[in-house]
Amino acid sequence: MRFLSHAKRSYVTRNVRLEDAFSLSSKDPVVGDLVLARVDRIRQHARLENTEGRRVHLYPGDEIVVAAGNRYATAQFHAESPSQLGPCHLVAAGGLAANMISKSSQVKPATEITLLGTLADETGEKLNLSRYTRLKPSYLHPSAESMPVLLVIGSDMNSGKTTLACTAINSFRKAGMRVAGAKLTGTGAGPDYWKMLDAGAFQVKDFVDAGMPSTAGIGEEQLIDMLRTIKADAMQHDADVLVVEVADGVFQPETRALLAGRLASEVTGALVAADSAAAAVMTTERIIHAGIPVYSVGGVFTRSALCCDEVALALGLPVHTLSGLREVDTVEYLKSALMRDHTDVAACVV
Q1: How far apart are CA 346 and CA 350, in angstroms?
Q2: How far apart, in whole angstroms, are the C-alpha atoms of residue 110 and residue 236?
Q3: How much is the pLDDT for 348?
Q4: Going by C-beta distance under 8 Å and a sequence separation of 6 or more, which residues neighbour residue 214?
């Protein structure tokens, strides 16, 4: 792997054994394939997140190890996985190579890169993230229904989901619970992963651990299978509760599919994050309509006391700021609601 000695390695490759890379192949990439790319022109992403979470600065001519994949992000890029080597874009700091279709006006055009080749092993087989999954399929044992699963879901990107999820994790941990965290959907990047660990989760799993650079274009069945595997893994490590964040907003295709499918049977209840009062009401109503109990509503809109009043009046549900979510009474309320609803689900299963 001498040809990779100067290459900067991205977050999505954190589970990969680069020692397996024996040569550079001219075979066209598919989703999840590891590729060596050259940085041509710095635009939106001037830094690359490495496997330890540090943002390393990029310079024209740098070589980087990234993965081919799709991206769907309303606040950044809509991009599709490249079907051939050559000119391409870096569409996520975590190391996603894709062809940009469109972008938000809030960001610059995507950083321009050239895909030099796909990494291959000694037999010539391309290296793909799916080879390095850390989540092994597992049958849930009979007591699987005994672990509550708290879903954190939002109206949009940047609505406060991760902050809400991390506050819940930290509050549960301080209440003496053993908390596992998970990022079920999104684009491979480390900030949410590291924040959950910093908040007190004893372990965090994401779709990168399932061998995916992103979940854009992934079907509902595969996402549910991944969630079940994450749940089984958390239980095998004696978690008291699993906090699961779903990325982006409720109109995102994969989130819509989850809500229309079997997600309600896989989670216990939800916290909703939103960036405005109207979005909070709309999102909460959609979650409840999908059959998932909503325990509390929060997020960016709670910066305004008037917005909090509007949402509480419209929904008749608790609205919590981050400081409110840390209060002992609130934590006890969430624990009681989770155990109550999970007990009901377990009784139905029996």
Answers
A1: 6
A2: 41
A3: 45
A4: 69, 70, 71, 92, 96, 186, 187, 188, 207
Q: Within a 10 A sphere around the Cβ of 257, how many other Cβ atoms?
A: 16
CB neighbour list of residue 323: distance below 8 Å, 6 or more residues apart: none
CA angle in degrees (0–180, nearest 5) for 282-253-186:
100
Mapping DSSP to helix (H, G, I), strand (E, B) and coil, where does residue 24 land?
strand
The beta strand positions in the chain, using DSSP E, are 8-9, 23-25, 34-41, 47-49, 55-57, 63-68, 71-72, 77-80, 86-92, 96-103, 111-120, 149-154, 179-183, 203-206, 241-245, 269-273, 294-298
Q: Tens digit of pLDDT for each residue in 111-142?
A: 999 999 999 999 999 999 999 999 876 655 54
DSSP per-residue codes, 239-264:
-SEEEEE--S-TTSHHHHHHHHTTGG
Give the span between the Cα atoms of 166 and 293, in whole angstroms. 20
Q: Which residues, 6+ apart, have CB-to-CB distance to 19 below 8 Å?
A: 1
Cβ neighbours for 251, distance < 8 A, ≥ 6 positions apart: none
Question: Residue 145's pLDDT band (boundaries 50, 70, 90)?
Answer: low
